[in-house]
Amino acid sequence: MPRNIKVLFTLTTLLLCSAAYADTVTATVSTTSFYNSSQESLVTFSTSNANGTIFGTFAGGGQLSLTSQNANMTTDPVFAGQFGVQATDGSLDILTLSATGQTFTDLVADVYGVFPDCPVSTDTSCQTFTIAVNFADGGSPLFLTVHVTPGVATDNFIKIESTDNGAIQSVVFGSPSPDRFYALDEVGISGAVSTVPEPSSLLLLSSGVLGTIGLVRRKFSV
After folding, report:
1. How does pLDDT run across 15-47, given as a tens digit for each residue?
2. Alpha-carbon gap, residue 211 to 220, rounded angstroms
3. How far apart (Å, rounded) are the C-alpha atoms in residues 71 and 51?
4. Can you tell me whether residue 23 is helix, strand or coil?
5. Where are the domains of the chain?
6. Is the omega angle on the peptide bond into residue 178 within 30 degrees of 0, that is, cis?
7. CA separation (Å) from 139 to 12, 13, 105, 175, 199?
8. pTM score, two decimals?
9. Which CATH number fits domain 22-201: 2.60.40, 2.60.120, 2.30.130, 1.10.287?
């Protein structure tokens, strides 16, 4: 490999490595809603269902999909209308939420009606719920285990936050347990950013690369 190309490859590697960081995320559970209209954009879900996937939209033209591994879904007509989804058989698990062509930094939702898995119905201290968070950088998912309150008509308001503004690509509710629940309501998204480069960004990137190549060639031609 020519020396100037090696230098360019080294510079590119250093730039990519310097941009890398360890993704961190937290999950908080409450009995009251985290949704704040000034911070999160509430998701409106479509009433149609395509092979276990239901689609939603949020402010600014954002789109997302919810896919259930084991159930067909519909909007939640009783409690949340088009602001929530439920399984047609009443049992959701391994539910994947992902934004289309976008990433986000924070998410709020109500995991409603968690099925009990404690050995004694009066003991809820063992009741846990697992959430997997996948980041856009392609690293391994982060698994979060939170304590929730089971019950047919019980709200578990959850807030998932990227503590360093890392770009979240998808969130999987009830994975890998699976943890069963009745509905996912009041879903809100914040920090949404498009992952599709704008033409001006592509032009700037290409001109920067060409400029770097020219600088390296000039240096070694002297």
Report:
1. 344 344 568 999 999 999 999 999 999 999 987
2. 15
3. 9
4. coil
5. 22-201
6. yes
7. 20, 18, 16, 17, 27
8. 0.77
9. 2.60.120
